[in-house]
Amino acid sequence: MTDRGLAVELSDLTRVYGQVRALDGLTLQLAPGELVALLGPSGCGKTTALRILAGLDRPTSGSVSVGGRDLTKVPANKRDMGMVFQAYSLFPHMTVIDNVAFGLKLRGRDSAARRARAGDMLDLVGLNEHANRYAHQLSGGQQQRVALARALAIEPSVLLLDEPLSALDAKVRVQLREEIRRVQIEVGTTTLFVTHDQEEALSVADRVGVMNAGRLEQLAPPAELYSAPASRFVGEFVGLSNRIPAQVRDGIASLMGRDVPVLPGSASGSGHALVRPESISVVADADGPATVTTVMFLGPLSRVTCTLADGTGVVTQLASSEALRLTPGDSVRLEVAPTPVLVVA
Fold first, then answer.
1. How far apart are CA 146 and CA 129, in angstroms?
2. 8-227: what CATH class?
């Protein structure tokens, strides 16, 4: 399929509802064909940003452009965007193929062209054999695939996904997020994906933007966001982090008997290092200064919680083959990997 991706730019967006500042100077660029996920807690402004891009809401100030065209005051039905929401919003009286073709009908495409395009989209999401069924005859995951096919059928310049998987059970969510990513790559449509699910955002996006109180705290590829958080909020919101007492001097943090480099933005002097569980190894040692508190089996990995001599709790993540050799009450030694850490005051 032809890459239809266009650049998207949200510039210094604010949105004020009475006393609430839902967006506070949001600036965000999406490259052509890129999938960016906005991640954050409820009320952080991520859905407001998507609605403003869609034309379903107006910014208090700031601008929206797609492909270099200013769309700030263009109504939603003139923006050429495909949208998929948490609610599937399929027409119950229409068959699957008629649902997918609906947007094409509104655009004046003839019947043969509509059915051909709708059939192609159903092929793309693996539902061609269900073309003549109705929504109530499909599972939730299948209905959301139909909604995705309908959004793509109009060949939108931008695809908007607002918590599209949150109503589905865990196994179906994983399957469908992989499907969404496969389809998005194949079609090449620039996509904004809004979610509160960290695993979802990190697994599908080219870049992830973490939002907090209407502001973009960090925008980075998933691996960078996880390993090099730019702020305390990002470090504590994305994934698990231990808060371990540390002393910082000349760009080096001393913690748990080891010196490690610090990330940009770290505090100086006394603070707490945010250390990922997998960056701490557990070594059996009868004279070790830490004690195993719990061992939680999670399949191929296990989570081991230990307590330091000063009472600090530390969560580690080990291969289960190693963790199952440990028992609550064992004395152990904890070793920190020499990877950079963010130190907060």
1. 12
2. alpha beta
